[in-house]
Write a structure and sequence with these properties.
403 residues, alpha/beta, Rossmann fold, Alpha-Beta Plaits, 2 domains, four-stranded parallel sheet, 17 helices, 14 strands
């Protein structure tokens, strides 16, 4: 693969009429909180809510008439699947998407909604890929690789040209890395327009294959990651060469840091982002000292996070921020205790969400009871004020951190 700046410019002209020119916006609250000038390239607003639609379209437009008639095939359980399905159907090209058998139903449904035929095979992505290659050969279908393809990487790079047209004076761009197609395209485009711009790659710690390669150590351990879109153990060799040449720094983030960053994007900027862009923000937060005084842009590469996972993430984030807290009381088992506690909490400006009144367990004496009250407060400082008021009123109360 010989990806060049010229090929990305050609891709830009080729696909711009059928892709969304996503905005690059100032992250006002995060900039204030982090103390840097932060911008977001919102590819979560792209067709199928991810940048993958760009590369899929650019590849599809390279097919000849016979290839279009025979159809295409891809292996993906996520954004690549939907990008290929969406644009293939729009162009009248039959598409088949192979997904692992354990793929969540909502992902299968969304891909089928875009007009693809979904085939389930294998327990892992690697098993599914081999089956896909065999099926492509058997049925004479064109295989569209999610990242190891020059036309795909060129399509992904078009977002960088838009970004620099929208905010020309950027100093740093942070890009999540999985298989390397996105950062290969983006880095090639950025350096082609502005050679001195700094490009930083972001990886999930459990899938830090590119960073491991740069540090000349053993590859990633793998595992369950929130950043499933970049959970790739073996990036493309062609992409690796481009990364080695054009990417200035590569950093990784832990699962806790990624989760916290996804919550930050939602709570501060009202941006629904999946784990991959969360990895990018986590890396930014870990390296604020080096980024001070620079204009930084994060590629928010996708927003396809499962709604149930997102709801749990939000609740956990609220707990971390102290906005949801459990208070544990040991009280006299007499009438009026709960109403007094509720009144004090309400007068302090907090809401009672849940109450568990426990008499039967033997952790307290027979004439006393244990009471758990989950409250919604403004922040941790507000919780401390409420606890002080309750203790001043004579109640024996502990917070989660004290239990």
């Amino acid at each position: 693969m010989t990806l060049t700046f010229e090929k990305i410019k050609d891709a830009y002209e080729t696909i711009k009429g059928s892709t969304i020119r996503t905005p690059t916006v100032k992250a006002a609250r995060l900039s204030l909180h982090l103390g840097i000038d932060l911008y977001l390239k919102l590819e979560n607003l792209q067709h199928t809510n991810a940048f993958k639609a760009r590369g899929a379209l650019n590849k599809l437009l390279t097919l000849n008439e016979e290839q279009r008639k025979n159809g295409v095939i891809a292996c993906s359980a996520g954004n690549h699947a939907q990008g290929v399905a969406y644009h293939a159907t729009r162009l009248g090209i039959p598409s088949t998407i192979v997904m692992p058998e354990n793929t969540p139903f909502n992902k299968i449904q969304r891909t089928e909604d875009f007009g693809a035929q979904v085939v389930l095979h294998g327990q892992t992505f690697d098993e599914s890929v081999q089956f896909t290659m065999d099926m492509a050969k058997e049925k004479n279908l064109t295989f569209i690789h999610p990242f190891d393809d020059e036309a795909v990487a060129a399509g992904q790079g078009t977002l960088a040209l838009e970004m620099l047209e929208q905010v020309p004076d950027l100093d740093v761009v942070v890009v999540p890395i999985g298989g390397g197609g996105l950062i290969a395209g983006v880095a090639t485009a950025l350096k082609g327009v502005k050679p001195d711009i700094e490009v930083i790659g972001a990886q999930a710690e459990m899938f830090d294959a590119v960073l491991a390669n740069r540090e000349k150590r053993a590859g990633p351990v793998g595992g369950a990651t929130l950043a499933e879109g970049i959970a790739v153990k073996e990036p493309s060799k062609a992409n690796m060469k481009i990364i080695e040449k054009l990417v200035d720094h590569i950093y990784s983030a832990t699962e806790a840091e990624i989760e916290d960053a996804v919550f930050d994007l939602l709570s501060n900027e009202k941006i629904v982002a999946e784990g991959a862009p969360g990895t990018g923000l986590a890396v930014i937060k870990k390296h604020l000292k080096e980024l001070k005084g620079k204009k930084v842009c994060l590629v928010v590469c996708g927003g396809n996070i499962d709604s149930r996972l997102l709801s749990t993430l939000i609740l956990r984030g609220l707990v971390r921020d102290g906005r949801i807290t459990r208070l544990t009381f040991e009280i006299d088992d007499t009438p009026g205790q709960l109403s007094d506690i509720s009144r004090i909490i309400g007068e302090s400006g907090a809401n009672v969400i849940e109450v568990i009144h426990q008499r039967m367990m033997q952790s307290v004496s027979l004439k006393r009871a244990e009471l758990e009250v989950v409250i919604e407060a403004r922040d941790k400082h507000h919780v401390r004020q409420i606890v002080k008021t309750l203790r001043d009123a004579g109640f024996k109360v502990k917070t989660d951190s004290e239990v």
